[in-house]
Amino acid sequence: MKKQILVFAALxxxxxxxxxxxxxxxxxxxxxxxxxxxxxxxxxLDTLQPDFDVYSWNSFVALNWPVGADGNADPGKTIGADGxxxxxxxxYRDVRDVFLxxxxxxxxxxxxxxxxxxxxxxxxxxxxxxxxxxxTPTVLTDxxxxxxxxxxxxxxxxxxRFEILINKTMFDYIVxxxxxxxxxxxxxxxxxxxxxxxxxxxGAPGVEGAIMVKSSWKVIQACDKPRFHSEDVLVCSxxxxxxxxxxxxxxxxxxxxxxxxxxxxxxxxxxxxxxxST
Length: 278
Known about the structure:
Blueprint: H1 2-12, H2 15-18, H3 45-63, E1 93-94, E2 129-130, E3 161-166, H4 168-176, H5 182-187, E4 211-219, E5 230-237, E6 240-241, E7 244-245, E8 248-263, E9 272-277
Parallel strand pairs: 2-5
Antiparallel strand pairs: 1-3, 3-4, 4-8, 5-8, 6-7, 8-9
């Protein structure tokens, strides 16, 4: 992964950003940048692009950093040193564990929502659960994102799976304002103002704003694992009326094929977004 990140960075950045004199640098660091560090003296799309490219890569590296026992980035480790590793963003809170049935108050470190009935016998504590398969015209829940055209099916005929996760900054705002329940949302006075990330002084990462990560996964074979960030997870399909099929769950090896990172920052309160795909 380390070599891939460095090679991709060299290929994707414009020539001006590849020269040693063009700050800021792409770094292998677990520190999530709080905002874009604008170094351009004249403001235009061309002059700003290198700064946004570097910000995106530094965010990507930090969010994919190896974690310690607490699920946070371990500065004593190096990304790519041990091959495929558990990542920071995978320890963010899944929205299915934030917006709970009955408007129950969620906790950051609480147990995840149990899988549908069909998966209870297969589920083991700590196991990752993927349920989202796409949005249908008659259902609007966390299990039916992110499209309104039905499930996305890969070339092998399997559903692509999705998940939406949020960092602790975003989670705390939702909980502190009771936005996790319908009752809390009804009495909340808009607008919603999630925390904005900011840069620190002297190149420090600064304040981490609200971050939302959307990931997409496909079923892979064991021989394909070297090509993907992968994990053995419990994959559950909710019951459907049209087409009609019962709920089902099974353990499958899934490979990451897409990652969308959105960060609310001071310079971009409409959120900075970056996407990567395999």
